[in-house]
Design a protein that fits this description.
By secondary structure, this protein is an alpha/beta fold. The protein has 2 domains: 6-210 and 327-407, 3-Layer(aba) Sandwich (Aminopeptidase), CATH 3.40.630; 212-324, Alpha-Beta Plaits (2-Layer Sandwich), CATH 3.30.70. The protein is 34% helix and 23% strand. It contains 12 helices and 15 strands. It has helices at residues 6-17, 34-49, 93-108, 134-139, 145-150, 159-165, 196-200, 238-253, 291-310, 331-344, 358-362, 389-407; strands spanning 53-56, 62-66, 74-80, 116-121, 183-191, 204-210, 212-221, 225-226, 260-269, 275-276, 279-288, 315-324, 327-328, 348-353, 368-373. The strands form 3 sheets. Strands 1, 2, 3, 4, 5, 6, 13, 14 and 15 form a 9-stranded mixed beta sheet that branches. Strands 9-11-7-12 form a 4-stranded antiparallel beta sheet, covered by helices on one side. Strand 1 (53-56) and strand 2 form a beta hairpin. Helix 1 (6-17) crosses helix 3. The two termini are 24 Å apart. The structure holds (2S)-amino(hydroxy)ethanoic acid and manganese (II) ion (2 copies). One manganese (II) ion (MN) binds next to loops. Residues 91, 124-125, 132, 355-356 line the site of (2S)-amino(hydroxy)ethanoic acid (HGY).
């Protein structure tokens, strides 16, 4: 029986690593950029080499299909090929090369009763347009063409224009919606992006819950003044107000084990050494696997921002960038994956995902599971991100085993 080949996985990762490298370090394969599209083209070339029929839809999701011997809904696997700014070459990419290897192994074995569908989603990262999972939310109908017209990056380019710029057809976004009845089960392989697998000494993770995330842009408007001629008691310093808020974010988030909150972006205006900052725009990311805690913390932090701002005569405005609830993945799929890992002889744990994923949106319509692969020191969204091809190959063996089990009648 053909097994996954770590050397081939490494080669495919190296090929992706030649696309979208950022001169400042890491990779910036941004959604609806030429480099994301080059990566999708490479993905399709690999699959066509294994005899799959490939396509890219109007909004940039790419697919490969291996026919089944019977007219059944497909077994599917995939992830994303875009990255954050100066990110790593494994977040998303590891799951895509794993899915390609799943296709190669199953095609080499003559295929299954079920068709196999391999997917590279467009725009999973929210780094460019603020909202994550653009491709999967267009497939499931959670996003529409209007969403693409409303989302804009820091240069005020809309996602709609950016998609057109790279040859896609966002005006046909409605046609990109899939029929969930066409897919029996979806499994995403992904790097863990944390340290639990390393700390617990396990080879793989079977994900039970994907954390939710609420992302808000906050603008602090004070007054830009001369830094030498303006006494401290006369200032309306937007950056000091923002700094007080950022420490409040940390304090509140530390109160519960599964809650995390981050201010990852900060724009200071006018940004001159000798000017009291008059305006600050920051990005807040609040996450939890408990929906109520996620929303309550967000509300409390917005109240903090208002209290801090009013105490300093600062005007505050908030704009929600995205809001995703935690998603519990399908128990039947978790069971099939756990049984497959056991048969394959790989140690695993059942665990939550702090990061969001396309699987979280697919799971709203289709029985869905995730298999986590350890990443070195848990580092992710960074040039130092790394995962071992041998570990990715183990995840491939598990998903292939699980798909064969489902093909033989296991319930999902
Ligand atoms: O940000 C995330 O949770 C994921 O990496 N897109
Ligand atoms: Mn990802
Ligand atoms: Mn990511």
């Amino acid at each position: 029986m053909t097994k996954a080949d770590p050397a081939r996985i490494a080669r495919h990762l190296d090929e992706l690593g030649a696309i979208g490298a950022d001169p400042a370090g890491g990779f910036s394969r941004m959604v609806y950029s030429q480099t994301e599209r080059q990566a999708h083209r490479r993905f399709r070339d690999w699959l066509e080499e294994y005899g799959l029929t490939t396509s890219t839809d109007a909004v940039g999701n790419s697919f490969g299909v291996l026919p089944g011997s019977e007219d059944l809904p497909a077994l599917a696997s995939g992830s994303h090929l875009d990255s954050v700014y100066q990110g790593g070459n494994f977040d998303g990419a590891a799951g895509v090369v794993a899915a390609v290897e799943i296709a190669r192994v199953l095609a080499a074995g003559g295929g299954l009763r079920h068709p196999l569908k391999i997917i590279a989603f467009a725009g999973e990262e929210g780094a460019r347009f603020g909202a994550p999972c653009i491709g999967s939310r267009l497939l499931t109908g959670a996003f529409t063409e209007d969403t693409l017209r409303q989302l804009a990056d820091r240069d005020r380019i809309t996602a709609w224009s950016a998609a057109r710029e790279v040859g896609l057809h966002p005006e046909d976004a409605t046609e990109a919606r899939w029929d969930p009845a066409d897919i029996a089960c979806f499994v995403e392989v992904h790097i863990e992006q944390g340290r639990v697998l390393e700390a617990r000494g396990r080879q793989l993770g079977v994900v039970h819950t994907i954390g939710g995330s609420t992302r808000v842009e906050l603008t602090f408007e004070g007054r830009a003044d001369h830094s030498g001629a303006t006494p401290m008691w006369l200032r309306r310093d937007a950056l000091v107000a923002a700094a007080e808020f950022i420490t409040a974010v940390e304090r509140r988030a530390q109160r519960h084990a599964t809650t995390v909150a981050t201010v990852g972006t900060l724009q200071v205006q006018p940004g001159s050494l000798t000017t009291v900052p008059g305006r600050v725009v920051l990005g807040l990311d609040v996450r939890d696997i408990d929906s109520e805690r996620q929303r309550e913390l967000t509300e409390s932090l917005l109240d903090d921002a208002l209290r801090i701002a009013s105490g300093r005569e600062i005007h505050i405005t908030a704009r929600q960038l995205s809001d995703q609830s935690p998603i519990v993945l399908h128990g039947t799929v978790q069971n099939v994956l756990a049984a497959a890992a056991t048969r394959q002889g790989y140690s695993f744990i059942s665990m939550a995902s702090g990061a969001s994923h396309d699987a979280g949106h697919v799971a709203k319509q289709i029985p869905t599971g995730m298999v986590f692969v350890p990443c070195r020191d848990g580092i992710s969204h960074s040039p130092e991100e790394h995962a071992e091809p041998a570990h990715i190959a183990q995840a491939v063996d598990v998903v292939v085993d699980a798909f064969r089990d489902i093909d033989a009648g296991a319930e999902v």
